[in-house]
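All the exercises in this workshop are built on plain-text protein records. There is nothing in a record beyond a sequence line and a structure line. A learned vocabulary of local backbone shapes supplies the integers on the structure line. The question running through the whole workshop is how a given chain folds. Here is such a record, shown just as it appears in the course material:

***
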Amino acid sequence: MDKAKPLFSYRPYWAKRFGTAPLLPMSRDEMETLGWDSCDVVLVTGDAYVDHPSFGMAVIGRLLEAHGFRVGIVAQPDWRSAAAFAALGRPNLFFGVTSGNMDSMVNRYTADRKIRRNDAYTPEDEGGRRPDRAVIVYAQRCREAFRDVPVVLGGIEASMRRTAHYDYWSDAMRRSILIDAKADLLVYGNGERAIVEIAHRLARKAEPAAIDDVRGTALVRTRLPPGLAVEDRSLPGPPPARAPQGAVRLPSFEAVERDPALFAHALRIVHQEANPGNGRPLVQAHGEREVWINPPAVPLTTPELDGVYALPFARAPHPAYRGARIPAWEMIRFSVAIMRGCFGGCSFCSITAHEGRVIQSRSEDSVLREIEDIRDSTAGFTGIISDLGGPTANMYRMNCRSERIRTSCRRFSCLHPDICRHLDTDHGPLIALYRKARALPGIRKVLVASGLRYDLALRSPAYIEELAAHHVGGYLKVAPEHTEEGPLARMMKPPVAVFERFKTAFERAAAKAGKELYLIPYFIAAHPGTTDEDMLNLALWLKRHDFRPEQVQTFLPSPMALASAMYHGGCDPLRPLAGQRPGHLFAAKDLRQRRLHKAFLRYHDAANWPLLREALKRMGRADLIGPGKRHLVPAWQPGGRPAAGPARQPRRRR
């Protein structure tokens, strides 16, 4: 792996003399108050501007400011014209474009493709404040405003669309977002290293096309460098015994558009080349152009990550919102992120594909300082830290024990099919952090609200006891996702028996602490590889364990998740694609069947009973319709006559 230039070692840009802004400006008036005649960088985002380290544009903006650049924010602009994109004037270096903390399509549409009425990243939870495919629209408007200014894409929407990808909302393959947005560069993953390098190079008058070697970036080329060694993986087949240096050719956009198996093959390669230690450049033809994707960025060190979180965030929304409620801000205002990344590799999840498998952890001192900042400066703080976690709550400081293995591994997950023997699963540093955090003066309670990997937690009974005794406010979120072997294997999740072991251990620890605590398990309906029978068995398991899920998730194929290839073409990218026949893996696509799968999860909701009764009869399981404990749904419907089915039995008195 290349040695990275330390994040804060660059010579500051000359505009450093202007100092630190109380908040990054959103108007010309604010710029004039700061003494600026122009911005060096203008960041365009689909979210409201909240100056907090949980909001991507605030992190990138404050980091660029620390390097001496004048950064302005255009938040949730009216995209119907270029006027809002020109409001801060022509940026001297570049536009940075992001849809925000969420993909704009996921933000705007449900898994049933219905428009959401709300948007947690908008003042007063108002929906409709960002366009579909916001990155493409924003980039086009930036070009209209100032045609000669470079456009750099970033954030999760750009990151997950850097190659040709399946788009669930149009049920079609789409080109790399670089092509459709006509942007100069794309930054994928956590973009601190890349964006700082790009800014300094553009400040030195480099042409965007010449910035072609920055890790964690992608760009469009008309031809490849002469003499470049390219491993052609455009067709399925065994890779070379020893991976050569150079680049890897993916199947072209035109090929993956024609053949879903080739899309699954391409996605498999993208994930195999995602390790910063051994990932190679990827190249994918789009007609006569080549999308070039550099290897992932080198993960931030603990001191570098501490430096990012020590930037002078105001930790509040911009005053322009006049105190309006921003739900996403309300949710995280008293929470602290302690790490980044996830080595779980769940096939349906975007976190690993975006943030990577290498865990980047903050130091204890950095985390404790942020808790003290919340205590001392955040209005409304009552002494309770609402979450001390991250993408996964209990992966803090966990990484591969062997540097050699870590930099050569191509596994999709460190936890599937079993926990890797090279993985350090010590929960000791996390337990120590918990104890120090709750011992701080003025801190009454520190909760853990992030999702938990229970298979990891079982490695540390002391952690489970610490969690139950001090850090659960009544409910703990965990995600077994399913109970049946087939769906769990496609999800890359552990067997349900592992969850049952954790449930027993957690309940024992809660009893020992003298507390009444509950688990909230999360499940997914209609994941590829899931049959109606699988969902029925899951529903029976839920009833047997007296779980009545309220919030349930229907599988939504995100662009670069491995499970999206399973959904689109019925191929399994977890295995080599040579010889796989498209469609051999079942995926529920019919809207009625997807609703049925979701109804099985909410078997206790009377609104779902007619659909479930119909399905049970069709499946030959009418014996599960009735009033007893062994039945899944009753034969009667509230407010109406008994439904057709087995005879209704009289209720016994107790």
